[in-house]
Each structure stands twice: as structure tokens, then as C-alpha cells.
TrEMBL record:
Protein name: Oxygenase MpaB family protein
Pfam families: MPAB_Lcp_cat
Molecular functions (GO terms): oxidoreductase activity
Domain ER-bound oxygenase mpaB/mpaB'/Rubber oxygenase catalytic: residue ranges: 23-250
Keyword Signal (UniProt): no
PANTHER family: BLR2777 PROTEIN, ER-BOUND OXYGENASE MPAB_MPAB'_RUBBER OXYGENASE CATALYTIC DOMAIN-CONTAINING PROTEIN
Species name: Pseudonocardia charpentierae
Listed EC numbers: 1.-.-.-
Keyword Nucleotidyltransferase: no
Keywords per UniProt: Oxidoreductase
Length: 279
């Protein structure tokens, strides 16, 4: 893995760098909505969700929040970390996935959690969610949205997913192709209910704010996905959700948030030095 962008020859900026769209997008607090949207959307793949249910702490109320935090930390390292940090974090994820198996009780078939097609689904659910929230919140225009998706293919490769979409058109084609294989399962209902009601030991601030943010993430999903969950999926919901995302982003830029992790602070400094972020 080679550093793509550097401010100076001796600075390692990992997969992306201060001139990337990815760094600009992932410094935005409103992207938390995209993270929750991704989990709800990803749950519609029956085998991915079954494998998660059978192997993950996400369904154990006592462990779910810690597992969610570790996932967020991995995304942060993958986005902002140095080459060695990304390689180490991705290597741990690949080793864990390689050991895990799911079992479909309906067919008796066992399946690997590191199946490339399953990993591709998880990647596309995540990136589609981030880019959709970023566009609707006013962070990205259409051209930068395509660039963001193209950059994200690097993130797919480090965990073993191949042939990731590189534009919004390719992303749409991927979802059009896979939709007949998606369905709402009992595991998806359980996981989404836990997520949207914050049924887990967590700081009070999280338990108070996660349900409305998760509801906004749900409302931002494609109409077909909302309908699979039994929601009407109306165009009026799309309009009100877009307005809510713009308002939330504007609000979050005006109020101080929690201290950023060191890798995000480093990214901000490098972007200021590169002239891609106001000082």
C-alpha cells in the first residue's frame, strides 16, 4: 500500500490525504447519520445479517456499544491513519473475518464472513450512505460525490472487497442488481430495533441522541429500502429529510463537539498546511 497524497515527502498520509474528498467529508460530524444509515441498510442482506447475528457482539446489549465504538475507530483509522496504521487495522479485520462462519438454518449451508461479495455489500452500504448524506447536507456536489466513491475503492480493497463501484451511476447499478436478493429478516428487525432505540449500555448523551439520529438515517435511505422495512417511502419524506440534514449540519458547525481523535486532528492540520481547509 502506498501513500497517495503527501504534504511533504516524509509525511505518510495513508490511503487518502489532504487533497482528497474523503478527508473533507469524514471531518464532518453530520456523517454520523450516514454511519447509522449504513447499518440499517446493510441489515437487508439476509446472509450478511445472519452471519453478523451469529458472530457479532452487536446483538449482545452488554457489548453492543463497545463493538460500535470499535467499528467507528476502524473507519477513522482507515480514513486518516498512516499506511502502517491502516495495514495493521485492516489486517486485524481480515484475520477476524477469515475465522468466522455463518450457518443458514433454512438450507443447512455454511458460509464465510469474508466472502468477497458479502464484503462488497457492506462496503457499498457504507459508502452509499456516507455519500448520500454528504450530498444532501450540502457537503458535496455531484462531481465530488463521484470522486468520493472512486476514492473509497481503496478502502474496499484493504478489507478484501473487490470491484467496488467508482461512481454514483455504478453504485446505483450495483443496488439495482442486488435488490432481488435482499429481504427483511428477523435478525434485521432485531438489530435495527436495538439501534433505533439505543438498547445498550452507553453514555447518557448517546442514549438520548442516537434514536432521533438513527431515525434520520432511516429516513435518508432509498425509498425501496424504507419500503422493505414497511415504511411508505414517500417523496415528501425525501424532501423533509434533506432539509433536516442541511439544518443538522449547520447546527453542528456552530456548537463545540467532543475532542477529536489524534488522527483527525492531524488530518485537519495537514489540510490547513495544504491549503485545502481554512485555518
Amino acid at each position: 500500500m502506498r501513500s497517495v497524497t503527501a504534504v511533504a515527502d516524509d509525511i505518510d498520509t495513508g490511503l487518502f490525504g489532504p487533497h482528497s474528498v474523503t478527508w473533507r467529508v469524514h471531518l464532518e460530524p453530520v456523517l454520523y447519520v450516514g454511519g447509522l444509515r449504513a447499518l440499517i441498510l446493510q441489515a437487508l442482506h439476509p446472509w450478511v445479517m445472519l452471519g453478523t447475528y451469529q458472530n457479532s457482539a452487536l446483538f449482545d446489549p452488554a457489548k453492543a456499544f463497545a463493538r460500535f465504538v470499535r467499528t467507528a475507530e476502524f473507519v477513522g483509522i482507515r480514513t486518516f491513519g498512516t499506511t502502517s496504521e491502516v495495514e495493521a487495522a485492516a489486517g486485524r479485520v481480515r484475520r477476524i473475518h477469515a475465522k468466522l462462519r455463518g450457518h443458514d438454518p433454512a438450507t443447512g449451508r455454511a458460509f464465510r464472513l469474508d466472502d468477497p461479495q458479502g464484503l462488497l455489500w457492506v462496503h457499498c452500504g457504507e459508502i452509499d450512505s456516507y455519500v448520500d448524506v454528504a450530498v444532501r447536507a450540502g457537503i458535496l456536489n455531484d462531481a465530488d460525490a463521484d470522486r468520493y466513491i472512486a476514492e473509497s475503492a481503496r478502502a474496499a480493497e484493504v478489507v478484501g472487497a473487490a470491484d467496488a463501484p467508482r461512481s454514483r451511476a455504478e453504485m446505483k447499478a450495483y443496488f439495482d442488481e442486488i435488490r432481488p436478493r435482499l429481504r427483511l429478516t428477523d435478525e434485521a428487525i432485531t438489530g435495527t430495533t436495538n439501534l433505533m432505540t439505543a438498547r445498550m449500555p452507553a453514555p447518557v448523551a448517546v442514549k438520548l441522541t442516537q434514536p432521533p439520529i438513527a431515525a434520520l438515517g432511516f429516513a435518508s435511505m432509498p425509498r425501496w429500502a424504507r419500503r422493505m422495512y414497511g415504511s411508505p417511502g414517500l417523496p415528501t419524506t425525501d424532501l423533509s429529510t434533506t432539509l433536516a440534514l442541511k439544518a443538522l449540519r449547520a447546527t453542528l458547525t456552530r456548537i463545540p463537539g467532543p475532542p477529536e481523535p489524534p488522527h483527525m486532528q492531524r488530518a485537519r492540520r495537514l489540510m490547513v498546511e495544504a491549503g485545502t481547509l481554512p485555518s
